[in-house]
Write a structure and sequence with these properties.
Oligomer: single chain
Number of helices: 15
Order of helices and strands: HEHHHHHEHEEHHEEHEEEHHEHHHE
Largest sheet: 9 strands, mixed
Strand content: 15-25%
Number of strands: 11
Distance between the termini: 23 Å
Helix content: 25-40%
Radius of gyration: 26 Å
Protein backbone atom coordinates (compact mmCIF):
# COMPACT_ATOMS: atom_id res chain seq x y z
CA UNK A 1 0.00 0.00 0.00
CA UNK A 2 2.90 2.36 0.64
CA UNK A 3 3.58 2.61 -3.09
CA UNK A 4 0.12 4.04 -3.70
CA UNK A 5 -0.13 6.30 -0.63
CA UNK A 6 3.32 7.95 -0.69
CA UNK A 7 3.59 8.32 -4.45
CA UNK A 8 1.28 9.70 -7.09
CA UNK A 9 0.43 7.66 -10.19
CA UNK A 10 -0.47 9.65 -13.31
CA UNK A 11 -1.13 8.80 -16.96
CA UNK A 12 1.87 9.18 -19.25
CA UNK A 13 0.27 11.80 -21.50
CA UNK A 14 3.14 11.70 -23.96
CA UNK A 15 1.68 8.50 -25.37
CA UNK A 16 -1.53 10.31 -26.35
CA UNK A 17 0.19 12.78 -28.68
CA UNK A 18 3.24 15.00 -28.86
CA UNK A 19 2.94 18.80 -28.45
CA UNK A 20 3.71 21.03 -31.42
CA UNK A 21 7.15 21.93 -30.03
CA UNK A 22 8.14 18.25 -29.84
CA UNK A 23 6.81 17.54 -33.34
CA UNK A 24 8.92 20.37 -34.78
CA UNK A 25 12.06 18.66 -33.44
CA UNK A 26 11.34 15.36 -35.20
CA UNK A 27 13.20 14.45 -38.38
CA UNK A 28 11.42 14.06 -41.72
CA UNK A 29 11.64 10.25 -41.44
CA UNK A 30 10.15 10.29 -37.92
CA UNK A 31 7.29 12.54 -39.04
CA UNK A 32 6.53 10.28 -42.02
CA UNK A 33 6.50 7.23 -39.70
CA UNK A 34 4.07 9.00 -37.38
CA UNK A 35 1.76 9.97 -40.27
CA UNK A 36 1.78 6.40 -41.59
CA UNK A 37 0.94 5.12 -38.10
CA UNK A 38 -1.95 7.57 -37.70
CA UNK A 39 -3.34 6.81 -41.16
CA UNK A 40 -3.30 3.09 -40.35
CA UNK A 41 -5.13 3.78 -37.08
CA UNK A 42 -7.74 5.93 -38.88
CA UNK A 43 -8.21 3.18 -41.47
CA UNK A 44 -8.94 0.68 -38.68
CA UNK A 45 -11.42 3.07 -37.05
CA UNK A 46 -13.25 3.65 -40.36
CA UNK A 47 -13.60 -0.11 -40.87
CA UNK A 48 -14.95 -0.54 -37.33
CA UNK A 49 -17.43 2.29 -37.84
CA UNK A 50 -18.67 0.91 -41.16
CA UNK A 51 -19.49 -2.39 -39.48
CA UNK A 52 -21.29 -0.74 -36.56
CA UNK A 53 -23.29 1.97 -38.34
CA UNK A 54 -26.80 1.43 -39.62
CA UNK A 55 -27.92 2.37 -43.16
CA UNK A 56 -29.57 5.49 -41.77
CA UNK A 57 -26.32 6.56 -40.06
CA UNK A 58 -24.30 6.07 -43.25
CA UNK A 59 -26.55 8.51 -45.08
CA UNK A 60 -25.80 11.32 -42.62
CA UNK A 61 -23.51 14.05 -43.88
CA UNK A 62 -20.78 13.68 -41.23
CA UNK A 63 -20.31 9.97 -41.93
CA UNK A 64 -20.63 10.38 -45.71
CA UNK A 65 -17.68 12.79 -45.59
CA UNK A 66 -15.74 10.45 -43.29
CA UNK A 67 -16.09 7.55 -45.71
CA UNK A 68 -14.97 9.64 -48.69
CA UNK A 69 -18.34 10.33 -50.26
CA UNK A 70 -19.37 13.70 -51.61
CA UNK A 71 -22.13 14.42 -49.13
CA UNK A 72 -23.26 17.65 -50.79
CA UNK A 73 -23.58 15.95 -54.20
CA UNK A 74 -25.58 13.07 -52.71
CA UNK A 75 -27.88 15.40 -50.84
CA UNK A 76 -28.48 17.52 -53.94
CA UNK A 77 -29.19 14.48 -56.15
CA UNK A 78 -31.66 13.03 -53.62
CA UNK A 79 -33.48 16.32 -53.34
CA UNK A 80 -33.55 16.76 -57.12
CA UNK A 81 -35.08 13.33 -57.55
CA UNK A 82 -37.70 13.97 -54.87
CA UNK A 83 -38.96 17.44 -55.80
CA UNK A 84 -37.12 18.65 -58.89
CA UNK A 85 -36.04 21.76 -57.00
CA UNK A 86 -32.63 22.45 -55.47
CA UNK A 87 -32.70 24.23 -52.17
CA UNK A 88 -29.56 24.98 -50.25
CA UNK A 89 -29.86 24.74 -46.48
CA UNK A 90 -29.02 28.02 -44.84
CA UNK A 91 -26.21 27.76 -42.33
CA UNK A 92 -27.10 28.80 -38.77
CA UNK A 93 -25.51 32.11 -37.73
CA UNK A 94 -24.02 31.56 -34.26
CA UNK A 95 -22.40 35.00 -34.08
CA UNK A 96 -25.69 36.70 -33.16
CA UNK A 97 -26.90 34.16 -30.57
CA UNK A 98 -26.88 34.15 -26.76
CA UNK A 99 -26.08 31.16 -24.57
CA UNK A 100 -27.06 30.08 -21.09
CA UNK A 101 -25.59 27.39 -18.80
CA UNK A 102 -28.15 24.79 -17.73
CA UNK A 103 -28.70 21.35 -16.27
CA UNK A 104 -30.72 18.90 -18.38
CA UNK A 105 -32.40 15.89 -16.77
CA UNK A 106 -32.47 12.94 -19.18
CA UNK A 107 -34.32 9.64 -18.82
CA UNK A 108 -33.61 6.59 -20.97
CA UNK A 109 -33.96 2.83 -21.15
CA UNK A 110 -30.51 1.57 -22.00
CA UNK A 111 -31.15 -2.02 -23.09
CA UNK A 112 -31.00 -1.12 -26.80
CA UNK A 113 -27.79 0.93 -26.55
CA UNK A 114 -24.05 0.45 -26.10
CA UNK A 115 -23.87 2.63 -22.98
CA UNK A 116 -24.18 6.36 -22.34
CA UNK A 117 -20.78 7.76 -23.38
CA UNK A 118 -19.72 8.18 -27.01
CA UNK A 119 -17.41 5.45 -28.32
CA UNK A 120 -14.96 5.33 -31.19
CA UNK A 121 -16.30 2.07 -32.63
CA UNK A 122 -20.05 2.57 -32.08
CA UNK A 123 -22.57 5.21 -32.98
CA UNK A 124 -25.33 3.54 -30.97
CA UNK A 125 -24.87 5.27 -27.60
CA UNK A 126 -27.22 7.57 -25.70
CA UNK A 127 -24.71 10.43 -25.84
CA UNK A 128 -24.38 10.08 -29.64
CA UNK A 129 -28.15 10.39 -30.07
CA UNK A 130 -28.24 13.29 -27.59
CA UNK A 131 -25.56 15.34 -29.36
CA UNK A 132 -27.10 14.59 -32.74
CA UNK A 133 -30.37 16.05 -31.43
CA UNK A 134 -28.63 19.06 -29.84
CA UNK A 135 -26.84 19.97 -33.09
CA UNK A 136 -29.83 19.20 -35.31
CA UNK A 137 -32.01 21.60 -33.26
CA UNK A 138 -29.19 24.19 -33.25
CA UNK A 139 -29.11 24.31 -29.45
CA UNK A 140 -25.31 23.92 -29.55
CA UNK A 141 -22.72 24.63 -32.23
CA UNK A 142 -20.45 21.70 -31.32
CA UNK A 143 -19.67 19.43 -28.41
CA UNK A 144 -16.20 20.93 -27.93
CA UNK A 145 -17.64 24.44 -27.39
CA UNK A 146 -20.66 23.40 -25.31
CA UNK A 147 -19.04 23.39 -21.82
CA UNK A 148 -20.41 19.88 -21.36
CA UNK A 149 -20.23 17.51 -18.37
CA UNK A 150 -22.26 14.38 -17.55
CA UNK A 151 -23.26 13.27 -14.07
CA UNK A 152 -22.77 9.53 -14.59
CA UNK A 153 -21.30 7.23 -17.22
CA UNK A 154 -23.66 4.24 -17.44
CA UNK A 155 -22.56 1.02 -19.16
CA UNK A 156 -24.14 -1.02 -21.95
CA UNK A 157 -27.83 -1.89 -21.24
CA UNK A 158 -27.93 0.29 -18.09
CA UNK A 159 -30.86 2.73 -17.82
CA UNK A 160 -31.39 6.05 -16.06
CA UNK A 161 -34.37 7.94 -14.71
CA UNK A 162 -32.18 10.85 -13.62
CA UNK A 163 -29.12 11.26 -15.81
CA UNK A 164 -28.10 14.93 -15.56
CA UNK A 165 -25.80 16.89 -17.86
CA UNK A 166 -24.52 20.47 -17.62
CA UNK A 167 -24.20 22.31 -20.93
CA UNK A 168 -24.36 25.72 -22.63
CA UNK A 169 -27.48 26.02 -24.81
CA UNK A 170 -28.68 28.67 -27.23
CA UNK A 171 -30.98 31.21 -25.58
CA UNK A 172 -33.47 33.81 -26.77
CA UNK A 173 -32.38 36.27 -24.10
CA UNK A 174 -29.27 38.24 -23.12
CA UNK A 175 -27.26 36.95 -20.11
CA UNK A 176 -28.45 39.88 -17.96
CA UNK A 177 -32.13 38.94 -18.36
CA UNK A 178 -31.94 35.15 -18.55
CA UNK A 179 -33.03 34.56 -14.92
CA UNK A 180 -35.99 36.95 -15.07
CA UNK A 181 -39.39 35.28 -14.71
CA UNK A 182 -40.52 36.62 -18.10
CA UNK A 183 -37.39 35.31 -19.82
CA UNK A 184 -37.82 31.86 -18.24
CA UNK A 185 -41.48 31.73 -19.30
CA UNK A 186 -40.67 32.65 -22.90
CA UNK A 187 -37.41 30.69 -23.25
CA UNK A 188 -36.90 28.01 -25.91
CA UNK A 189 -38.79 24.82 -25.03
CA UNK A 190 -35.58 22.82 -24.67
CA UNK A 191 -37.21 19.54 -23.62
CA UNK A 192 -40.01 19.65 -26.17
CA UNK A 193 -37.62 20.57 -28.99
CA UNK A 194 -35.18 17.78 -28.14
CA UNK A 195 -37.83 15.13 -27.56
CA UNK A 196 -39.25 15.62 -31.06
CA UNK A 197 -35.97 14.41 -32.60
CA UNK A 198 -34.75 11.99 -29.91
CA UNK A 199 -35.72 8.28 -29.88
CA UNK A 200 -38.80 7.58 -27.74
CA UNK A 201 -36.74 5.66 -25.16
CA UNK A 202 -34.34 8.62 -24.69
CA UNK A 203 -36.17 11.73 -23.51
CA UNK A 204 -35.51 15.04 -21.75
CA UNK A 205 -37.60 15.48 -18.57
CA UNK A 206 -36.73 19.03 -17.45
CA UNK A 207 -34.09 21.74 -17.41
CA UNK A 208 -32.64 24.09 -14.81
CA UNK A 209 -31.05 27.50 -15.44
CA UNK A 210 -27.76 27.92 -13.54
CA UNK A 211 -26.25 31.06 -12.06
CA UNK A 212 -22.65 29.90 -12.41
CA UNK A 213 -21.19 29.36 -15.92
CA UNK A 214 -18.82 26.66 -14.60
CA UNK A 215 -21.27 24.59 -12.53
CA UNK A 216 -20.59 20.94 -13.39
CA UNK A 217 -23.02 18.01 -13.39
CA UNK A 218 -19.98 15.79 -12.79
CA UNK A 219 -17.85 17.58 -10.21
CA UNK A 220 -20.67 19.29 -8.27
CA UNK A 221 -22.72 16.12 -7.79
CA UNK A 222 -22.45 15.06 -4.13
CA UNK A 223 -24.24 11.71 -4.43
CA UNK A 224 -25.60 9.29 -7.00
CA UNK A 225 -28.31 6.77 -6.22
CA UNK A 226 -28.72 3.58 -8.28
CA UNK A 227 -31.39 0.88 -8.15
CA UNK A 228 -30.76 -2.70 -9.23
CA UNK A 229 -34.03 -4.62 -9.79
CA UNK A 230 -34.30 -8.36 -9.18
CA UNK A 231 -36.97 -11.06 -8.56
CA UNK A 232 -37.17 -12.52 -5.08
CA UNK A 233 -36.77 -16.16 -6.16
CA UNK A 234 -35.66 -18.12 -3.09
CA UNK A 235 -33.30 -15.37 -1.86
CA UNK A 236 -32.79 -14.72 1.85
CA UNK A 237 -33.66 -11.02 1.87
CA UNK A 238 -32.78 -10.58 5.56
CA UNK A 239 -29.25 -11.89 4.95
CA UNK A 240 -28.90 -9.57 1.94
CA UNK A 241 -29.95 -6.58 4.07
CA UNK A 242 -27.46 -7.59 6.79
CA UNK A 243 -24.75 -7.63 4.09
CA UNK A 244 -25.92 -4.20 2.86
CA UNK A 245 -25.47 -2.78 6.37
CA UNK A 246 -21.81 -3.83 6.28
CA UNK A 247 -21.28 -1.98 2.97
CA UNK A 248 -22.15 1.45 4.38
CA UNK A 249 -18.78 3.02 5.13
CA UNK A 250 -15.88 4.96 3.65
CA UNK A 251 -13.64 2.16 2.44
CA UNK A 252 -11.44 0.75 -0.32
CA UNK A 253 -13.76 -1.03 -2.79
CA UNK A 254 -11.06 -2.53 -5.04
CA UNK A 255 -12.53 -6.04 -4.49
CA UNK A 256 -15.97 -4.81 -5.64
CA UNK A 257 -15.14 -3.36 -9.06
CA UNK A 258 -13.33 -3.85 -12.34
CA UNK A 259 -9.99 -2.09 -11.94
CA UNK A 260 -9.27 0.68 -14.43
CA UNK A 261 -5.57 1.08 -13.62
CA UNK A 262 -4.50 1.63 -17.25
CA UNK A 263 -6.58 4.84 -17.28
CA UNK A 264 -4.84 6.15 -14.16
CA UNK A 265 -7.48 5.09 -11.59
CA UNK A 266 -5.47 3.97 -8.54
CA UNK A 267 -7.65 5.37 -5.74
CA UNK A 268 -10.46 2.96 -4.86
CA UNK A 269 -11.68 4.72 -1.71
CA UNK A 270 -15.37 5.58 -1.95
CA UNK A 271 -17.92 6.84 0.57
CA UNK A 272 -20.92 4.51 0.35
CA UNK A 273 -23.69 6.46 2.08
CA UNK A 274 -26.57 3.96 2.14
CA UNK A 275 -27.58 0.52 0.88
CA UNK A 276 -30.90 -1.27 1.31
CA UNK A 277 -33.11 -3.96 -0.19
CA UNK A 278 -36.75 -2.94 -0.74
CA UNK A 279 -39.87 -4.22 -2.49
CA UNK A 280 -40.62 -2.61 -5.86
CA UNK A 281 -44.38 -2.73 -5.09
CA UNK A 282 -46.43 -1.91 -1.99
CA UNK A 283 -47.15 -4.72 0.50
CA UNK A 284 -50.76 -5.22 -0.64
CA UNK A 285 -49.54 -5.89 -4.19
CA UNK A 286 -46.95 -8.51 -3.22
CA UNK A 287 -47.84 -12.11 -4.02
CA UNK A 288 -45.33 -13.56 -1.52
CA UNK A 289 -43.87 -15.77 -4.23
CA UNK A 290 -40.54 -15.90 -6.03
CA UNK A 291 -42.00 -13.62 -8.71
CA UNK A 292 -42.21 -10.53 -6.47
CA UNK A 293 -39.81 -7.80 -7.63
CA UNK A 294 -37.33 -6.10 -5.28
CA UNK A 295 -34.46 -3.68 -5.77
CA UNK A 296 -31.11 -2.90 -4.22
CA UNK A 297 -30.88 0.87 -3.67
CA UNK A 298 -27.35 2.08 -3.19
CA UNK A 299 -26.06 5.64 -2.79
CA UNK A 300 -22.50 6.97 -2.78
CA UNK A 301 -20.50 10.08 -3.58
CA UNK A 302 -19.08 8.32 -6.66
CA UNK A 303 -18.81 4.81 -8.07
CA UNK A 304 -16.09 2.66 -9.58
CA UNK A 305 -16.30 0.75 -12.86
CA UNK A 306 -18.86 -2.10 -12.41
CA UNK A 307 -18.95 -1.44 -8.65
CA UNK A 308 -22.69 -1.94 -8.19
CA UNK A 309 -22.76 -5.00 -10.45
CA UNK A 310 -19.93 -6.57 -8.42
CA UNK A 311 -21.68 -5.73 -5.15
CA UNK A 312 -24.90 -7.26 -6.49
CA UNK A 313 -23.07 -10.42 -7.57
CA UNK A 314 -21.82 -10.95 -4.00
CA UNK A 315 -25.22 -10.06 -2.48
CA UNK A 316 -26.89 -12.70 -4.69
CA UNK A 317 -24.46 -15.29 -3.33
CA UNK A 318 -25.36 -14.17 0.21
CA UNK A 319 -29.09 -14.35 -0.66
CA UNK A 320 -28.61 -17.88 -2.01
CA UNK A 321 -26.94 -18.80 1.33
CA UNK A 322 -23.69 -19.67 -0.43
CA UNK A 323 -21.85 -16.91 1.44
CA UNK A 324 -22.37 -15.32 4.86
CA UNK A 325 -23.01 -11.57 5.14
CA UNK A 326 -19.60 -11.23 6.86
CA UNK A 327 -17.91 -11.86 3.46
CA UNK A 328 -18.56 -8.16 2.75
CA UNK A 329 -16.32 -7.08 5.65
CA UNK A 330 -13.64 -9.57 4.62
CA UNK A 331 -13.57 -8.28 1.03
CA UNK A 332 -13.41 -4.67 2.25
CA UNK A 333 -10.36 -5.56 4.36
CA UNK A 334 -7.77 -4.97 1.62
CA UNK A 335 -4.89 -5.51 4.05
CA UNK A 336 -5.93 -9.14 4.55
CA UNK A 337 -7.39 -9.54 1.04
CA UNK A 338 -5.43 -7.24 -1.32
CA UNK A 339 -6.33 -9.32 -4.39
CA UNK A 340 -9.91 -9.68 -5.66
CA UNK A 341 -11.32 -13.23 -5.88
CA UNK A 342 -12.40 -14.14 -9.40
CA UNK A 343 -16.17 -13.81 -9.86
CA UNK A 344 -18.50 -12.53 -12.58
CA UNK A 345 -20.36 -9.21 -12.07
CA UNK A 346 -24.18 -9.31 -12.22
CA UNK A 347 -25.64 -8.30 -15.60
CA UNK A 348 -26.21 -4.61 -16.36
CA UNK A 349 -29.82 -4.77 -17.64
CA UNK A 350 -31.60 -4.27 -14.25
CA UNK A 351 -29.46 -1.26 -13.23
CA UNK A 352 -30.90 2.26 -13.19
CA UNK A 353 -29.32 5.61 -12.26
CA UNK A 354 -32.30 6.73 -10.23
CA UNK A 355 -31.38 9.96 -8.42
CA UNK A 356 -28.58 12.55 -8.27
CA UNK A 357 -28.02 15.20 -5.60
CA UNK A 358 -26.06 18.39 -6.19
CA UNK A 359 -24.33 20.90 -3.93
CA UNK A 360 -25.86 24.39 -3.95
CA UNK A 361 -22.69 26.23 -4.97
CA UNK A 362 -19.99 25.00 -7.33
CA UNK A 363 -16.56 23.99 -6.07
CA UNK A 364 -14.98 24.93 -9.39
CA UNK A 365 -12.97 28.08 -9.94
CA UNK A 366 -14.83 30.90 -11.73
CA UNK A 367 -12.08 31.12 -14.36
CA UNK A 368 -12.15 27.36 -14.99
CA UNK A 369 -11.84 26.75 -18.75
CA UNK A 370 -14.78 25.41 -20.71
CA UNK A 371 -14.81 21.65 -21.13
CA UNK A 372 -13.01 20.29 -24.16
CA UNK A 373 -12.85 16.77 -25.51
CA UNK A 374 -9.23 16.49 -24.30
CA UNK A 375 -10.02 17.87 -20.83
CA UNK A 376 -13.00 15.57 -20.48
CA UNK A 377 -10.89 12.53 -21.42
CA UNK A 378 -8.42 13.48 -18.68
CA UNK A 379 -11.30 13.92 -16.20
CA UNK A 380 -12.28 10.26 -16.62
CA UNK A 381 -9.16 9.17 -14.72
CA UNK A 382 -9.83 11.48 -11.77
CA UNK A 383 -11.56 10.68 -8.49
CA UNK A 384 -14.85 12.56 -8.69
CA UNK A 385 -14.72 13.32 -4.98
CA UNK A 386 -11.79 15.73 -5.51
CA UNK A 387 -12.79 19.40 -5.23
CA UNK A 388 -10.94 22.47 -6.44
CA UNK A 389 -11.91 25.01 -3.76
CA UNK A 390 -13.98 25.18 -0.61
CA UNK A 391 -17.72 25.81 -1.14
CA UNK A 392 -18.67 29.41 -0.46
CA UNK A 393 -21.57 30.88 1.53
CA UNK A 394 -22.82 32.81 -1.49
CA UNK A 395 -26.29 32.42 -2.99
CA UNK A 396 -27.00 29.03 -4.54
CA UNK A 397 -25.93 28.47 -8.14
CA UNK A 398 -28.98 26.22 -8.53
CA UNK A 399 -32.50 27.38 -9.32
CA UNK A 400 -35.71 25.34 -9.79
CA UNK A 401 -36.24 22.57 -12.31
CA UNK A 402 -38.51 23.80 -15.11
CA UNK A 403 -41.17 21.35 -16.29
CA UNK A 404 -43.72 21.53 -19.08
CA UNK A 405 -47.15 19.99 -18.55
CA UNK A 406 -47.44 19.06 -22.22
CA UNK A 407 -43.97 17.52 -22.23
CA UNK A 408 -44.65 15.45 -19.07
CA UNK A 409 -47.94 14.19 -20.50
CA UNK A 410 -46.14 13.09 -23.68
CA UNK A 411 -43.39 11.42 -21.61
CA UNK A 412 -45.98 9.49 -19.60
CA UNK A 413 -47.69 8.43 -22.82
CA UNK A 414 -44.39 7.15 -24.30
CA UNK A 415 -43.46 5.35 -21.09
CA UNK A 416 -46.91 3.79 -20.84
CA UNK A 417 -46.37 2.36 -24.32
CA UNK A 418 -43.07 0.84 -23.12
CA UNK A 419 -44.85 -0.53 -20.03
CA UNK A 420 -47.66 -2.04 -22.13
CA UNK A 421 -45.23 -3.76 -24.48
CA UNK A 422 -43.20 -5.40 -21.72
CA UNK A 423 -46.15 -6.07 -19.40
CA UNK A 424 -47.94 -7.99 -22.15
CA UNK A 425 -44.83 -10.08 -22.70
CA UNK A 426 -44.38 -10.57 -18.96
CA UNK A 427 -48.00 -11.67 -18.48
CA UNK A 428 -47.82 -14.14 -21.36
CA UNK A 429 -44.63 -15.66 -19.98
CA UNK A 430 -46.09 -15.78 -16.46
CA UNK A 431 -49.15 -17.70 -17.71
CA UNK A 432 -46.91 -20.20 -19.50
CA UNK A 433 -44.93 -20.64 -16.27
CA UNK A 434 -48.12 -21.33 -14.30
CA UNK A 435 -49.10 -24.04 -16.76
CA UNK A 436 -45.64 -25.60 -16.65
CA UNK A 437 -45.55 -25.52 -12.84
CA UNK A 438 -48.97 -27.19 -12.69
CA UNK A 439 -47.78 -29.91 -15.07
CA UNK A 440 -44.74 -30.57 -12.89
CA UNK A 441 -46.90 -30.77 -9.76
CA UNK A 442 -49.57 -33.02 -11.33
CA UNK A 443 -47.19 -35.46 -13.01
CA UNK A 444 -44.31 -35.73 -10.57
CA UNK A 445 -45.65 -34.44 -7.22
CA UNK A 446 -42.48 -32.36 -6.81
CA UNK A 447 -41.70 -31.59 -3.17
CA UNK A 448 -39.93 -28.32 -3.92
CA UNK A 449 -40.86 -25.63 -6.41
CA UNK A 450 -38.33 -24.49 -9.00
CA UNK A 451 -37.09 -21.07 -7.79
CA UNK A 452 -34.37 -20.04 -10.24
CA UNK A 453 -35.65 -16.57 -11.18
CA UNK A 454 -32.31 -14.91 -10.34
CA UNK A 455 -30.01 -17.24 -12.25
CA UNK A 456 -29.97 -14.96 -15.32
CA UNK A 457 -28.61 -12.06 -13.26
CA UNK A 458 -25.44 -13.93 -12.35
CA UNK A 459 -24.32 -14.22 -16.00
CA UNK A 460 -22.10 -17.23 -15.36
CA UNK A 461 -22.05 -21.00 -15.76
CA UNK A 462 -23.66 -22.72 -12.78
CA UNK A 463 -20.92 -24.90 -11.20
CA UNK A 464 -21.65 -28.42 -10.01
CA UNK A 465 -19.90 -27.69 -6.74
CA UNK A 466 -19.79 -24.16 -5.33
CA UNK A 467 -16.38 -22.75 -4.40
CA UNK A 468 -16.45 -20.06 -1.66
CA UNK A 469 -15.30 -16.61 -2.75
CA UNK A 470 -12.29 -16.38 -0.43
CA UNK A 471 -11.01 -19.77 -1.60
CA UNK A 472 -11.03 -18.86 -5.28
CA UNK A 473 -8.13 -17.94 -7.53
CA UNK A 474 -7.19 -14.27 -7.10
CA UNK A 475 -6.71 -11.44 -9.59
CA UNK A 476 -3.54 -9.37 -9.67
CA UNK A 477 -2.98 -6.88 -6.86
CA UNK A 478 -3.25 -3.13 -7.43
CA UNK A 479 0.51 -2.73 -6.94
CA UNK A 480 1.27 -5.40 -9.56
CA UNK A 481 -1.06 -3.72 -12.07
CA UNK A 482 0.54 -0.33 -11.48
CA UNK A 483 4.00 -1.85 -11.96
CA UNK A 484 2.82 -3.54 -15.19
CA UNK A 485 1.56 -0.29 -16.75
CA UNK A 486 4.60 1.65 -15.56
CA UNK A 487 6.76 -0.86 -17.49
CA UNK A 488 4.47 -0.38 -20.50
CA UNK A 489 5.06 3.40 -20.11
CA UNK A 490 1.30 3.92 -19.81
CA UNK A 491 1.67 5.30 -16.25
CA UNK A 492 4.29 7.34 -14.42
CA UNK A 493 4.92 7.12 -10.65
CA UNK A 494 5.86 10.50 -9.17
CA UNK A 495 6.80 11.63 -5.69
CA UNK A 496 4.21 13.78 -3.91
CA UNK A 497 6.32 16.93 -4.14
CA UNK A 498 6.93 16.47 -7.88
CA UNK A 499 4.95 18.59 -10.30
CA UNK A 500 2.43 16.41 -12.18
CA UNK A 501 2.06 16.54 -15.93
Amino acid sequence: MSATTEKKVVINKRLKGLPREALEKLSQTELIDKIVQLEAYNFQLRNLLQKKLTDQDRNEEEYAVLFGKDADTEAVSKEAKGSGKLQKQRKFDWSSTHRRHVLLKITYFGWDYQGFACQEDSNDTIESHLFRALTRTCLIESRSSANYHRCGRTDKEVSAFCQVISIDLRSKHTPEKQLDATALATEIDYCGLLNRVLPKNIQCVSWMPLRSPVYSARFDCVSRCYRYYFPRGDLDLAAMQAACDLLVRHADFRNFCKMDVHNGVTNYMRNLQSARVAAAASEEHLSNTGYDMYYLEIQANAFLWHQIRCIMAVLLLVGQRKEKPSVISELLDVTTNPCKPQYTPAIGLPLNLFRCDFRPTTTRSANHPAATVEAEAADEAMDTSVIEKEPSNEASDLTDWIYSEENLQKLIENTQCEWTQFSVKSTMIRNVLLQLENLLEENFKAKEKVQEQVILLQDSVKPRQYQPLLERKRCESLENRIEHFVKKQRLIVKEDDQETA
